[in-house]
Amino acid sequence: MSEDATINPPETRAAWTPDGEVKPPAPKVSEDAVIAAVSTVYDPEIPVDIYQLGLIYAIEIADDGKVKVEMTLTTPSCPSAQELPGQVEDAVRGVEGVTDVDVEVVWDPPWDQSRMSEDARLALNMF
């Protein structure tokens, strides 16, 4: 490979058929990548991310890149109730291959401290 091709790689072009452009399939969305994105969201009152707190109940990833997240809050009167779902949506939208995000706040089953990871319990001195 020439030095010029290394510095300026050739432009990648989509294939064409008589019906039009054939786009390559979207990359598969990794559950680990979604979990990593969700783990960047913190409850402002608790110095632990919401995944470790056990606020994420389910992550569903469709083949077309749509992601559904079911989450809860520590209490229905949580002061961050308006902010956290939006922050989760924004974080998941940044994952490669995600085409749409639906964040649903659920209250059943209610959250309790048993849903926290061991690391979260250690961080908060809750044994």
Provide structural commentary:
This protein is α+β, with helices and mostly antiparallel strands and 127 residues long. It has a single domain (27-123), classed as Fe-S cluster assembly (FSCA) (GMP Synthetase, Chain A, domain 3). 23% of the residues lie in helices and 19% in strands. The protein contains four helices and five strands, in the order αββαββαβα. The protein has helices at 3-7, 31-38, 84-93, 118-123; strands spanning 15-17, 20-22, 56-61, 66-71, 100-105. Strands 3-4-5 form a three-stranded mixed sheet, covered by helices on one side. A two-stranded antiparallel ribbon has the order 1-2. The longest helix has 10 residues, at 84-93. The chain is elongated. 23% of the residues are buried. The mean pLDDT is 86. This is SUF system Fe-S cluster assembly protein. InterPro entries: Fe-S_Maturation_MIP18 (IPR052339), FSCA_dom_sf (IPR034904), MIP18-like (IPR002744), SUF_FeS_clus_asmbl-assoc (IPR014291). Residues 31-105 form the MIP18 family-like domain. It comes from Neoroseomonas soli. Pfam families: FeS_assembly_P (PF01883).
